[in-house]
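4.2 Preliminary Data

To establish feasibility before requesting continued support, the project team ran the inverse folding procedure on a target of 281 residues. The structure was first converted into the token representation described in Section 3, and no sequence information of any kind was made available to the design step. The complete token record follows.
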């Protein structure tokens, strides 16, 4: 066994969320995830249990799907009859974190609006009710997206399969209901989530066709879509500029807009410094 046993793998956890890493030299999970780990900490992860798991195969490159979960600009075109009814995409506030991680907070259209889908679902003990008053989603680079909620969190994982196919795993975590079968309320909650997910997936194969078209001249991204740009900048940094063929890399332009823990974005820090300097002078 000591000579021919299975290899050891790294396994670390945030509460009941377990992360496996095949690289024995990788940095500790919490150091890697940084502010994403702290957001998950706010969800009382010790008290969460696995509620449901599903895998969906999609006919597109994994990046096409990841891009789709990093902005809310698409609510008006994709989710007119669902999410767009209650989320105001114009009010989304974005934080870019080091390492490609990011966060997006999107306000409800009506103050005090409560998601009818969570009616009857208990809150996770210890989670600040503030989280119920808004919509917050984090990206843990490179492939984890979680729209957190005090009633439980779905963890979406995006896995590449081939150049033009990928898999989305959806793992739902919620408060422990004790003994007995899963409460029926969860069926509706999960079904609603998957209906919205279907809306996100419906054009994936068509977008993939566009991506592979000789007519493609790139995609314009607006300011509200800067989490996408941030993600792709990080990918290029990891690949290394020297290894990226001409015309395929993105220009590194967002460095000054990345929030450092406790210090805010570089441009704001710069403004703060010049204000302090002018006050001094
Ligand atoms: Fe969407």
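Position-by-position output of the design step:
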């Amino acid at each position: 066994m000591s000579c021919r046993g299975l290899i050891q793998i790294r396994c670390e956890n945030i509460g009941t969320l377990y992360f496996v890493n095949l690289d024995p030299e990788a940095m500790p999970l919490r150091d890697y995830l940084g502010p994403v780990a702290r957001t998950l900490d706010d969800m009382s992860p010790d008290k969460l249990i696995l509620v449901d798991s599903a895998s969906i195969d999609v006919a597109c490159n994994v990046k096409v799907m990841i891009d789709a979960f990093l902005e809310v600009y698409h609510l008006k075109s994709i989710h007119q009859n669902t999410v767009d009814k209650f989320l105001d995409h114009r009010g989304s506030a974005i934080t870019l974190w080091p390492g490609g991680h990011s966060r997006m907070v999107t306000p409800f259209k009506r103050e005090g609006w409560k998601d009818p889908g969570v009616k009857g679902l208990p809150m996770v003990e210890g989670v600040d009710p503030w989280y119920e008053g808004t919509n917050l989603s984090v990206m843990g680079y490179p492939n984890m997206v979680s729209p957190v909620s005090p009633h439980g969190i779905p963890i979406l994982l995006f896995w590449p399969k081939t150049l033009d196919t990928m898999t989305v795993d959806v793992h739902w975590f919620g408060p422990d209901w004790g003994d007995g079968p899963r409460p029926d309320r969860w069926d509706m909650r999960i079904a609603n989530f998957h209906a919205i997910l279907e809306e996100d997936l419906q054009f994936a194969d068509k977008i993939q066709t566009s991506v592979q078209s000789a007519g493609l001249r790139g995609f314009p991204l607006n300011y509200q879509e800067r989490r996408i740009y941030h993600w792709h900048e990080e990918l290029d940094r990891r690949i290394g500029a020297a290894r990226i063929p001409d015309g395929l890399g993105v220009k590194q332009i967002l460095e000054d807009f990345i929030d450092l823990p406790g210090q805010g974005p570089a441009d704001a820090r710069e403004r703060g410094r010049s204000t302090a300097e002018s006050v001094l002078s």
